[in-house]
Design a protein that fits this description.
This protein is α+β, with helices and mostly antiparallel strands and 477 residues long. It has helices at 55-67, 163-179, 220-239, 285-294, 299-310, 314-321, 324-335, 340-358, 368-379, 385-397, 402-408, 417-429, 432-439, 446-456, 463-473, and strands spanning 5-16, 71-72, 75-76, 79-82, 92-95, 102-111, 114-127, 131-135, 139-143, 150-156, 192-202, 212-217, 247-252, 257-263, 273-274, 281-282. It is elongated and about 95 Å long. The protein binds zinc ion and manganese (II) ion.
Length: 477
Amino acid sequence: MKQSYEMVIGLEVHVELGTKTKIFCGCSTEFGAEPNTHICPICLGFPGTMPVLNKEVVTLAIKAGLATDCSIQNMGKQDRKNYFYPDLPKAYQISQFNKPLCYDGHIDINTSDGAKTIRIERIHIEEDAGKLIHSESDGSMIDFNRGGVALIEIVSKPDMRSAEDAVAYAKKLRSTLIYAGVSDCDMSKGHMRCDVNLSIRKKGEQKLGVRVEMKNINSFNFVQKAIEYEFNRQIKTIEKGDRVIQETRRYDSDKNKTYSMRSKENAQDYRYFPDPDLAPIHISDKIIDKYKNTLPELPDNRKKKYIQKYKISDFNAEQIVENKSTADYFESAVNAGGDPVIISNLIVGEIFALISKEKSQEEIKIKPDRLSTVSEKIKDDIISNSMAKKILSMLWENDGDVDEIIEKNDMKQITDRDKLTKYIKTALDSSKDAINEYKNGKDKALQSIIGRVMRDTKGKASPQKTNELLLELIKNY
Ligand code: ZN
Ligand code: MN
């Protein structure tokens, strides 16, 4: 049953721009302030006040557009989107209707089905609304600090066909905007919020089904779950002989369900019209070129560079560029003189493990030059990978000199041929069964002999040298 349907997904993503002040007034955008302390007559929509567009908003929106390969509008305008809700004191939101600042872009993603391109229909600028706070003791309250904070809304085409596609797109969009310096996209602070539009149809059909919108989903995990839930709900609805209705639904992450909020309004319901208080936005080609030429390096370019210049694996490169802070860290470690391939393996292996163990978000508590030194010690065969792992978790706790740590904890590998021969011979003398198995074609039998050498040397025998030497010595047994 489920296999005969496909889902069609489009995302509308709201991102708070990293400007110091709001879009039409000088109020601070700082997060976490006492409610209603960053407000003024303009962002409260008092009659007679006049908005003045913050130039930085246009700059950052252009950068967002260029980073996603959009065309930029030379002549933009701003429109009033009329609706009544308590968090919007003017009863209209200043947004953009038919002349978005950026249009016709795309984001490339990698999925288990291979590479895909998700088209971006438009990116427009608009103001955020206030925040409603509902409490049982005090009733409903409004904090207007967020009202008038600058947003871009990024609208994709309905090009996604699975929850995996949608999450990959949202993640790639987020990292692209962070690289471009447009926003920190901190989802825990609501700086990036996803609205998911989802409809279903029988596979092979061209006509789009009736879409349902799920608003303000603030984590990738919830995007995934909301899509899976809604896909099943719509299939059940249709199989029962009912129709899916066009509506806005709320995703409840505690119950992992979606609930109907209201039937979805159409564009004409908003009675859009140009805001007479705001002048048109002129953007010359010269300005566009200027930003194009100063746009920071984006994740796809960095990935390509890491693979070509540093010869690191496709997998490692993909993992490292996902977060700009990780990519910057990788580059610092490489620039300190370490081995790029080993550094990339240590980051994707040990460092990621340490991060997830500590749940410390993205902060890496080891100085990049220390990691660089560790990579050199591995390359020069002074320490083994398992010792490197120990050293890194020590450095994570307390910074220290790598050479001193190796010295003090006696972590140097044993690579000396005579010393290793002694250990291997001892192991071989007590491994008659394993030797026989090996001679009967079971290569795996060597593992127990190597294990014995490792135990006797407290893990210090060089795995590579031990292996080589063992293959040589076993011939005489
Ligand atoms: Zn204000
Ligand atoms: Mn919007």
